[in-house]
């Protein structure tokens, strides 16, 4: 019976978090990270996932309200969490456009050592010049070039991790033994973006290589994931879309010498629970109203229309104005590639359902959620996984830090009873949790430069 994989996404700074709820707590205080991580580990989740933000977003030249608390650096937080968890995987989002392979490989290998084999790296890229202004190079890479840099970045990092022999002997204080000179090989790499020559100074970590996660639904992103990733983080939430994505990405693996089990597909998902399905539906609707208030609704509209829309009533109809090409209304967010096409779809839905601006924003920006009683949600999750629409889900709760509590207490036991979810961890490492090969070099995942 196919098993369900689950991970927990720390909500972070975004419009999915319901700040108005009195149970909402700090995004900075370590106690918030600790609470969510311990809940996830108690529920036997595969890993705890942190996003990244390299610059505060702006809306019409001012810091966006949802970003005022900032976002801590992920690897530092995860290193602290490694000390208060025992089995939970620890996944950091780190950008390949604004980092260097040798330095990042050291940090990730160190986390894998500290956690005894639980580190993961969510590989992301950006060509956003606004973000790039915080870095010497700036945002100079176009889409194809940034994936080329990312591929070389990961390939070089793997070469560094694999440069230590698996049977290398560490220094022994009692015997006075030290590493033999042949325990670590020199890495010589000269590529389009990086030139490295030397020996990596962190011994081979418990997993050999941290788990690689990739988020991206574009053609370049799918191909990059098929060649490189252990887990792909997607937004395909419906059964139909999920199955199409699942089939497309899994079929790409063969040309890289990989098997289907070597890449787990885990969409982001939200959830709303209630004692009954009707109660859960009411709860979900209220959550969405709180997530998309009047100001947020206008901000969504401005991102798509590319112009100031603050003069319009969010509780009124969609205005009869055309999108503009301006890119400076909202900065630090993913830009809308096809403004006219997206705006046309919004207009069509607004007309068909007679929606106000705010109702339309709620309708068009909500992720697919599992909504229902615990029994209904458990059944929905099992169906997605059993029918190859996903291998599991990265859950994004709407509250920090207690948003996962009910799911862990009410849904997880039902999944365990159905025989589709583990009762306990089967091994110490994240690779064990995900059912991945213990040593990626044995699975032809590309360890050499």
UniProtKB/TrEMBL annotation:
Domain Luciferase-like residues, every copy? 25-387
Against Pfam families, the record matches this protein to: Bac_luciferase
Q: Does the keyword 4Fe-4S apply?
A: no
Keywords from the named record:
Flavoprotein, FMN, Monooxygenase, Oxidoreductase
EC assignment: the record states 1.14.-.-
> In the record, what terms sit under GO molecular function?
monooxygenase activity; oxidoreductase activity, acting on paired donors, with incorporation or reduction of molecular oxygen
Per UniProt, FMN binds at 93, 147, 218
Please give the SUPFAM superfamilies that the UniProt record associates with this protein: Bacterial luciferase-like
Q: Top EC class per UniProt?
A: oxidoreductase
What family does the entry list?
Belongs to the NtaA/SnaA/DszA monooxygenase family.
Name the NCBIfam families on file: FMN_nitrolo
Give the protein name, as stated in the record. NtaA/DmoA family FMN-dependent monooxygenase
């Amino acid at each position: 019976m196919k098993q369900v994989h689950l991970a927990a996404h720390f909500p972070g700074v975004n419009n999915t978090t319901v700040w108005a709820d009195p149970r909402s707590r700090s995004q900075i205080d370590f106690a918030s990270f600790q609470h969510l991580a311990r809940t996830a580990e108690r529920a036997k989740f595969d890993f705890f996932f942190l996003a990244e933000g390299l610059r505060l977003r702006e809306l019409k030249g001012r810091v966006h309200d949802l970003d005022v608390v900032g976002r801590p650096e992920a690897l530092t937080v995860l290193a602290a969490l490694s000390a208060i968890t025992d089995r939970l995987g620890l996944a950091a989002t780190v950008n390949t456009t604004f980092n260097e392979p040798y330095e990042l490989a050291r940090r990730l290998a160190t986390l894998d050592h500290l956690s005894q084999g639980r580190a993961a790296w969510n590989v992301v890229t950006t060509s956003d010049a606004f973000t790039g202004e915080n870095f010497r190079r700036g945002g100079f890479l176009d889409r194809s070039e940034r994936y080329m840099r990312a591929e070389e970045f990961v390939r070089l990092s793997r070469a560094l991790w694999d440069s230590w022999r698996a049977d290398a002997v560490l220094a022994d204080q009692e015997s006075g033994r030290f590493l033999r000179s042949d325990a670590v090989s020199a890495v010589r790499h000269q590529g389009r973006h990086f030139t490295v020559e030397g020996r990596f100074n962190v011994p081979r970590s418990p997993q050999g290589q941290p788990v690689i996660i990739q988020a991206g639904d574009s053609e370049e992103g799918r191909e990059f994931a098929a060649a490189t990733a252990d887990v792909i983080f997607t937004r395909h939430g419906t059964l139909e879309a999920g199955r199409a994505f699942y089939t497309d990405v899994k079929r790409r693996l063969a040309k890289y010498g990989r098997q289907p089990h070597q890449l787990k597909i885990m969409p982001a998902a939200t959830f709303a629970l209630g004692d009954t399905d009707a109660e859960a539906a009411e709860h979900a609707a209220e959550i969405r109203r709180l997530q998309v208030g009047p100001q947020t609704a206008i901000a969504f509209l401005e991102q798509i229309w590319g112009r100031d829309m603050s003069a319009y009533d969010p509780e009124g109809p969609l205005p009869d104005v055309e999108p503009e090409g301006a890119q400076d209304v909202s900065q630090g967010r993913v830009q809308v590639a096809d403004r006219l096409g997206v705006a046309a779809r919004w207009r069509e839905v607004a007309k068909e359902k007679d929606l106000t601006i705010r109702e339309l924003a709620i309708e068009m920006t909500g992720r697919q959620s599992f909504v229902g009683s615990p029994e209904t949600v458990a059944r929905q999750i099992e169906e997605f996984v059993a029918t190859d629409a996903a291998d599991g889900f990265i859950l994004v709760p709407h509250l920090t830090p207690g948003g996962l509590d009910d799911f862990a207490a009410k849904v997880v036991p039902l999944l365990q009873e159905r025989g589709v979810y583990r009762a306990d961890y089967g091994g110490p490492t994240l690779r064990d949790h995900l059912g991945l090969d213990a040593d990626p070099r044995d699975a032809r995942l590309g360890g050499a430069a």
